[in-house]
Structures are given as C-alpha cells and as structure tokens.
Amino acid sequence: MAMNKPADQGRGGLAAPLPEQVEVPLDNDPQLLRIRRIGKKLFDVANCVIAFGNTIPPQLSSDPAANGVETAFCHDISLSDETVVVHDTRRHASLALHPAVNGAPHIRFYASHPVYNQDKVLVGNLSLVDYTPRALFRESERQMLADLAGLVERELELRSVNASQLDLQKKNKNLRRKSLIDPLIGTWNRGAIMRILTIEAIRCDKAGLPLSLIVADLDYFKKINDTYGHPAGDAVLVKVASRLRSCIRPQEALGRYGGEEFLIVLPGASHATAMTVAERMRAAIAAQPEAIGGTNLNLTISAGVASTDMFPTATTEELISRADVALYAAKDSGRNKVMNATPPDSP
Ligand SMILES: Nc1nc2c(ncn2[C@@H]2O[C@H](COP(=O)(O)OP(=O)(O)OP(=O)(O)O)[C@@H](O)[C@H]2O)c(=O)[nH]1
Q: Which residues form a coiled coil (predicted)?
C-alpha cells in the first residue's frame, strides 16, 4: 500500500485545529458540483467529493452526482494538507474499521488533495472514492487531482471576491444615502432636495408638465427652543417632518431647506394642487398638539407656494425666492397661513 500520509484520524481528532471563520460554499453549489462530475468521469471512480472542514456532511443529497454514504465517508476523514492515496482501504489501519469499508458500499480506494482558501488556510479536501482497490495511482493522476483541487480554490477565490464587491457596493450605497439625508429628521437634506428640484424641473419642462414647490416654516420655533430647550426643539422638528411627509405622495419630495424651514417639491402639480397640498400640511400641523417631553405643544406652520404655471420662465432659484416672499407674507399676516406667489398683474 502506497500512501503519503495516513488518513487515520476521525473528524474529532484533527491534527491541526480548523480556523473558526472559514467561508465555505454550500454542498450543492453548481460550480462545485460541476468539478465533482468532472473528477468522477476523469478518474472513473464511484464518487468525487469536496469536503470542507466546517460543513455538516449531507447524508441525503439531492445532487444525483453525490452519494450520501461516500460523501459522509469523506467528511469523516480529517483534512489533510498533503495528497493522500489509499490504494486499498482494507489494508489501512483506521479506514479498514470504517462502516462504509467493512460494510456496504465497501469503499476500497480513497485519494484526496488539500484545498486552501485565498489566505492559504486549509479549508477542505477534494477526494476520490471507489469500490475497487487500485494498484496504481500515477504521478500524472496526482497532478490532475491537484489541478482539480486548484479549480475548487479558484471558485472559493471568486466567491470571496464577489462577496467583497457586494459588501463594498452596500457600504457605498449607505454612504451615499447618508450624504443625502438629514441626520436629525430623516428627510432629504438641503443639497439633495435642491438636486431633486433641478432634476424634476428639467423633467417637467421636457414633458410639458407644471412643477410646484412649497416652502414651509415653523411658527415661533425660537420660543419652543427657549422655553423647553434645544432637545425638545429637535423632537418637534422630527414630529413636524413626519406630519408633513404624511401629506405628500411618493413621487413628491420633502427636504430640510434650513433650520426649521422645509422645501417640498411637487412635480406635475399645478398651482391649485400645490395650494391644496400646502393647506393640507398647515391643517395637519395645527390639527392637534404634539406631546413633547410630557408637554402638549400647539404647533403651526406658515407656507408659501410657487409654481411654474404662474411663473413659466422662472429658474428654480427664482421659484424658491417667490415662494419665500409668499411665506413671509403669510408670517406677516399672522402665521398659521398659506400664501401663494402670483405675478404682479394676476388677480
Ligand atoms: N432645536 C433646534 N432648533 C433649531 C434647529 N435649527 C434651527 N433652530 C432654531 O430655530 C429657531 C428659528 O428662529 P426664528 O428664525 O426666529 O424663527 P421663529 O422663532 O420660528 O419665528 P417665525 O419663523 O417668525 O415664526 C432658532 O432659535 C434656531 O436656533 C435645529 O436643528 N434644532
């Protein structure tokens, strides 16, 4: 019997402890199944098994190329960092005692080659199993077995690269999201809402649709801060943002334009529609007091509305400043009001 290294330990008696966190593929990974099928055909053996250090052996695999008993047998043998060839298992000290050797399906031949991950950590073995002993396992066959194990390693590497890429994409997405969202109230921040306004203005212009915007501002907010403290003021901003958000549709956007000033972009909305939305917002805030830190606070907003159907040639900046003028008119006329920006000669 020629053998490079005795496969004489059960899974519980590994010579070297397995790394805890080794990424291992699933047993029914299609790429690995393909490699196993090639191995089976190439070496004309009963089975080609890829056993990973920390996977549970699939006793009943759905894979037609796999045989549960042989797979379990290969999982029972400790990982080896060298090529192992057992020409006849009946003559091997410990394998001869294995139930799959001294009983059905009477495994007689076993060969394996180590599989490393990209960190050069031993993670598994690619093994061949057959029912008849083999007198010979040539050097060229050892080389082919090593090449096959190399294909498995390549798969692991690809898998790891894909996972890192996905992770990076996720992180980028989160970072991008963070750069667009106001950290306190969770609406678009000023930069993001301005970008949305620019994009929507171009889109509506091309489509021949109107575009409206609302600038809404909390009334007497300084008094809330002064009376109840800045954290209470922050809580008010969060609640108000939530009520405003409930008044708009998904294709409309709410952003924090300044401290307690909100910009709402309404693509496709006419001036009349925008006035209705702004009035709905005003009513939603004034409808009932907000409980902040055990105190019921009566809140109101004032709002100014400007639309391209009233100012067809206005730039987005001009529209905002028109809405701002209307907002201050609403403040001047007593607050808790909505005012519209109209051209000087309109009724
Ligand atoms: N708590 C809190 N306060 C803020 C924040 N940003 C701005 N403010 C405060 O908002 C207040 C705005 O005050 P003013 O501009 O006088 O407005 P106002 O008191 O609402 O008065 P009117 O708008 O005229 O009704 C200031 O006290 C700012 O410090 C914030 O993020 N959190």
A: none
CATH numbers and ranges of domains, the chain? 11-168 (3.30.450.40), 190-340 (3.30.70.270)
Out of 184, 225, 226, give the residue to mutate to test ligand 1, the one with the largest number of ligand atoms within 8 Å of its CB: 225
The per-residue pLDDT for range 80-97, each reduced to its tens digit, is 899 999 999 999 998 999
Q: How far is CA 197 from CA 268, 273, 315, 334, in A?
A: 12, 17, 11, 29
Cβ of residue 182 lying under 6 Å from some atom of ligand 1: no
Which residue out of 222, 230, 285 has the highest number of ligand 1 atoms within 8 Å of its CB and is therefore the one to mutate?
222
Is 260 noted as a catalytic residue in this protein? yes
pLDDT exceeds 50 at position 244:
yes
Examine the predicted complex and report whether its ipTM is higher than 0.90.
yes
Residue 335 CA: nearest ligand 1 atom is 25
Single-letter residue type at 96: A
| Residue 334 CB-half CA count within 13 A | 1
